[in-house]
Specification:
This protein is an alpha/beta fold and 348 residues long. It contains eleven helices and nine strands. It starts with 29 loop residues before the first strand and ends with a strand. The structure holds uridine-5'-diphosphate and magnesium ion.
Length: 348
């Protein structure tokens, strides 16, 4: 954990090759973290496929299912699972805290040598877990599953492509393109993520930020098995903005660049206006003035908004509220995970 390991030149924590002779690791215990928000129809199938794969390969495991304030029968189904399978542990939030918080809660309690994070809707096939684990055994600490092809509509696809590429450009971490939260994290990465104090938890950014040996694994992203996608455009936009503002200060520098640009253009225009004033005696028009004022006014408002995004995030951080509130913890052995035993708010 010296900070040199796994980082590429230039200080950018990139995806470096593993050491020349990678050590092979054996998993003695794997945790799987899954967030659930109104996924009642996916609960039994997900559990069936997960345990099918993990038991089939003889991988010792514990499943951490986080109920993110579902309004349907998700919690009841999870409760039933926990009573029939002692390897299922359920954390149920007091309300909906969002996808990234559910993952954070799962990571806060997950143990074992490695942790897999995946969605509940079976878009992330559990059958990929042995492959993820294989890369981990080869010595990688973060294995991100990367979508080979998206099954969403062309508009959504274009938006995602744009988002990941812009984010990569303006942030100082190298996040894999087209990766969601589906990934496998080594225990030490999980330990580090857990200790991150920030509220704005863009997990896929943070896991790249930590560095170490990172790799990608391509897979075919399935269509959602049942239920509605929870991410409406508004949420996606929020997630995208969180990604931008949490990992880059480039938007803040925008005003400097635009300021220079406007000042430069203004100067050129001044030269032109003066020349035409003295050469042709015609006064500069009202229309151009109005245009300039509107342009500058608009730009200033936009940049105020950008500033506001950062100030708002600083405000959220300084309030130091708990990240989420656990209402119920089901299936946790007595005495284990003191944090859940207490229940209530949990900080980072
Ligand atoms: N999810 C959650 N809380 C939310 C929204 C979503 O825990 O507020 C979960 C959801 O149940 C699913 C995962 O996050 O397991 C991804 O959600 P979704 O499938 O809607 O996102 P998409 O696949 O469209 O990106
Ligand atoms: Mg989905």
């Amino acid at each position: 954990m010296t900070g040199t390991e796994g980082s590429s030149p230039g200080g950018r924590p990139g995806r470096a090759r593993p050491a020349a002779a990678p050590r092979r690791r054996l998993v003695s215990h794997l945790s799987v973290v899954v967030p659930f928000y109104n996924e009642e129809d996916n609960v039994p199938e997900l559990h069936r496929r997960l345990t099918g794969v993990l038991n089939g390969r003889g991988i010792p495991h514990v499943l951490y299912f986080v109920n993110d304030g579902s309004r349907d029968g998700t919690l009841e189904r999870l409760r039933a699972l926990a009573s029939s399978d002692r390897r299922v542990r359920v954390l149920s939030f007091s309300r909906n805290f969002g996808h990234q918080m559910s993952i954070s809660a799962g990571l806060a309690h997950a143990d074992g040598d490695a942790v897999v994070v995946m969605d509940a809707d079976l878009q992330d096939p559990p059958e990929l877990i042995p492959d993820l684990l294989e890369r981990w055994a080869e010595g990688y600490d973060v294995v991100c599953a990367v979508r080979r092809k998206r099954k969403e509509g062309p508009l959504k696809r274009a938006a995602y492509a744009l988002f990941y590429r812009v984010l990569r450009r303006i942030s100082n971490v190298e996040m894999p393109l087209d990766s969601g939260d589906f990934s496998l994290l080594d225990a030490r990465v999980v330990g580090l993520l857990r200790a991150f104090p920030e509220r704005n938890r863009f997990v896929r950014g943070l896991r790249s930020w930590v560095g170490f040996r990172q790799t990608e694994l391509a897979y075919e992203r399935m269509p959602r098995r049942a239920g509605e996608p929870k991410y409406r455009v508004r949420h996606l936009l929020k997630l995208a903005l969180d990604g931008f503002f949490a990992f880059s200060t480039v938007p803040l520098q925008l005003s400097t660049w635009l300021g220079f640009l406007a000042a430069g253009l203004g100067f050129l225009y001044l030269v032109y206006a003066l020349a035409s004033r003295f050469l042709y005696q015609n006064p500069a028009g009202w229309t151009s003035l109005a245009a300039i004022i509107l342009f500058l006014g608009g730009t200033q408002l936009i940049l105020l908004g950008v500033l506001g995004e950062y100030v708002g995030r600083i405000y959220e951080e300084v309030k130091q509220r708990p990240l989420y509130i656990v209402d119920e913890a089901i299936g946790f052995p007595e005495g284990e995970h003191g944090a859940v035993a207490r229940l209530g708010g949990e900080g980072p």
